[in-house]
Design goal:
Length: about 350
């Protein structure tokens, strides 16, 4: 893919701001769409025009105003998040207008970004710019490095229809798993997970106790857990853990997408069971593995081109649709990543 011809820089652009802290359910009134002057890049900065941005569960958490490692959003100021765009101005910083880059200043049409926080992207590495916003690097790293999926493993993935989980079934298969089970919120999603996304069986929240459903789906127990949810599902997974099971914990959706929007997901775990079965529990975060995005992009590009991997995602068009996109993600209305094309 050749670099896009850079259009003229307008005088103004749009950005989405946090109107007020979120307490309870997320709604459109928590956002404001503002028209503001296009920023001018300062020393050491590049001006980027955003082409596509991601919305994630972490965005909802950052709107609640609690202390977080990645910082909280401020009422009256623009939100931010992972995005892909093209450089339109790069004074003295070695970038060329038209270059495809990834940055963390989504939720606005233009952004002046420190050059050190902009990552060049190979325009030919993936079939589309949107594919660079998959959560596959986290999925790949958690399964391959944290949980060390092995041939013959039985793998349980919580939140299997989300951005991480919708790739996890495919990648567990790619790493040799014998059986893959996923949890989700509806039978509609469960059917798609089984038909298209690498899952042998599914359990549905609200269709009965999680542990009972998991025992049916994995009667011989599980070797690997990729957990994006926490809570009852983590407890159920431990009850079915086989000796030397490996658990990779990457999210806490049970609390992140609830009314409080927090990151804490308290759960009682049986320490005796963990010891007797030698279960390894490991938290995994992409920030600790800076080499993973490049490794994942190579794996993903190959899989997409040969047809052995698919990228489930919803794509809404127009920055004005970004608040709706996040509300729908929180409501569980989509399968895979949720993206907005600007």
């Amino acid at each position: 893919m050749s670099p896009t011809v850079v259009p003229a820089i307008p005088a103004v652009h749009r950005e989405v701001r946090l109107a007020d802290r979120v307490e309870g359910d997320l709604a459109p009134h928590h956002f404001t769409l503002a028209e503001v002057p296009v920023p001018k890049p300062g020393p050491g900065q590049v001006l980027v025009r955003t082409r596509v941005m991601a919305v994630t569960a972490a965005t909802r958490t950052q709107m609640a105003g609690m202390p977080l490692p990645m910082g909280s959003f401020v009422p009256g100021e623009a939100l931010w998040g992972s995005a892909v765009g093209e450089v339109v101005a790069a004074p003295d910083d070695g970038f060329t207008p038209g270059e495809l880059v990834q940055h963390s200043c989504g939720w606005r049409e233009f952004a002046a970004v420190d050059a050190s926080r902009v990552r060049r992207l190979d325009p030919d590495a993936l079939p589309s710019p949107a594919a660079h916003l998959s959560q596959g690097a986290t999925t790949w790293g958690a399964l391959r490095r944290a949980a060390e999926v092995r041939p013959g493993d039985t793998v349980f993935v919580t939140g299997a229809a989300g951005g991480v989980g919708s790739l996890a079934g495919q990648l567990a298969r790619r790493l040799g798993a014998r059986r893959v089970v996923g949890s989700t919120g509806s039978e509609r999603k469960a059917a798609l997970l089984r038909a298209e996304l690498g899952y042998d069986d599914t359990i549905v929240r609200g269709a009965g106790p999680i542990e009972r459903q998991l025992r049916r789906a994995a009667p011989e127990g599980i070797d690997v857990l990729l957990d994006t949810v926490g809570g009852e599902q983590l407890t159920a997974a431990l009850s079915l853990a086989r000796p030397d099971a490996r658990f990779a914990l990457v999210g806490a959706l049970s609390s992140q997408l609830g009314g409080g929007g927090g990151v804490a997901a308290p759960v009682e775990l049986d320490a005796g069971l963990i010891i007797m079965r030698r279960v390894a529990l490991r938290g995994f975060g992409l920030h600790a593995h800076p080499d993973l995005p490049q490794e994942w992009t190579k794996e993903f590009g190959q899989g997409l081109r040969e047809g052995s991997l698919v990228f489930p995602h919803a794509l809404l068009k127009g920055i004005e649709q970004a608040p709706r996109a996040l509300c729908e993600l929180v409501q569980g209305r989509h399968i895979g990543a949720v993206l907005v094309e600007l």
